[in-house]
Amino acid sequence: MGTATQIDATVPVPGVRGVSLVALAKDPFGYCMKAARQGDGLVRLGAGPVRAYLVSHPDYVRHILVGNAANYVKGSIMDGIRLALGNGLFTSDGDFWRRQRRLMQPAFHTRRIQRMAETVGEAVDASMASWAPAVANGAPIDILRESVQINITIILKTLFGTDIDEERSTRLHDLTDQVFAGMTRRVWTFFVPSWLPTPGAAAYGRAIEALDQEIYALISARRAALADGDAGEDLLSALIQAEDAETGERMSDRQLRDEVFTIFLAGYESTATGVAWAWHLLSQHPEAATRLGEEVDRVLGGRRPGYDDLAELTYTRRVVSETFRLYPAFPMYFRGSVEDDVVGPYAIPGGANIIISPYATHHDPRHWDDPEAFDPDRFTPERYDSRAREAYYPFGKGQRMCIGEPMSLTIAQLLIATIAQAYEVRTVPGAQITGRYAMTYQPKNGLPVILTPRG
């Protein structure tokens, strides 16, 4: 951490020019991306007495997330998110976070992810069967909505060991959409005086309460099943039975709720959004879609992909990586500085709000050649060098890197390979596809596609 002398010796962080705070209120994500184009990857967001900084230079991101991570905590900017996620891995700090990470790590072991592949295949098969009438009639389906439904099925089966009907799946999807919308609004209230009422607060609270009821019911049912001798192969069972090696303690229902809430919301939404964007990009780049189809034909020979096939599906993985470069799972996330610090040549005061943006880094021509182009071959061993690795962090960096990254990437790769084996996918001609920030970055009005059977 920087001393007072070091702080005095640094240059001030440049402020935003030509971007009004009215734009922040109307479009926070657009405001931040315009701001990120200024300076050299660290810019001060003007908001009266509020001290907020947007960081996108890979060196500065590494300093905050790795080099001096202890000085950058999940500060007050996360308060609106904590209303929903509680004190889970995504929002906690310090010793409590380390304890929770220890307890949860075994639940994300590679062996568990390997077993999940069968669940993924069954969920995709069921969805593809339901698409048959639309495929036969050349009618569009919304690949974002379908990806969400598939991922909800996968997450619930993997997380809770339970199947759900379409009605309940739809209810969970609607509730989580409401919770994400509430988080998106509340995260920007750090710019607003605390005495001002914020729109949608009551609806946000009701959505959290309704989703709480669903989660607590699933926790109660799983505890009862374990007491009756159920083997408990799901993630929730692993979390319920996990003991801290140092204290012997297990998680309370409230702690389980916070972690499950986080896994459920972050898990299905981020993966489903990535899969949808991948199909939109492949639709725009038929040569890439052709290469993808040729690879799945060669590797799979018509059978359903399994976990062991992923190592051979190298182009499929590059498609996933490039999609998350252009559309990172969470395009912005947040920290708060504890003490004064020096980041590069710049002084960062203690008590500042920090916004880190993978989206801005991934689209910056100072760090990527032709950054707006869809080019999966950026991730070949020859091209994905140390410079690119530093500038690529869709799931974070350092010890706070998302614990669910391997699971998300596995699901995305399996889904894309399975669908590519069966269909050619093209975005509906004339469809206006624009993004919107809702914690994740997703197609604003869905993503309608036409599926044509291959072969």
Q: Concise description?
A:
The chain has 455 residues and is α+β, with helices and mostly antiparallel strands.
Order the strands across the largest sheet as they lie in space. Answer: 1-2-8-5-3
The separation of the N and C termini measures 61 Å
Number of domains: 2
CATH class bucket of the largest domain:
Mainly Alpha
Written as H for each helix and E for each strand, in order along the chain, the element string is HHHEEHEHHHHEHHHHHHHEEEEHHHEEEE
Largest sheet: 5 strands, mixed
The CATH homologous superfamily of the largest domain corresponds to: Cytochrome P450
Q: How is the CATH topology of the largest domain named? A: Cytochrome p450
Give the % helix: 40-55%
Rg, nearest Å: 22 Å
Low-confidence stretches: 1-9
Structural class per helix/strand content? alpha+beta
Indicate the CATH architecture of the largest domain. Orthogonal Bundle
Mean pLDDT figure: 87
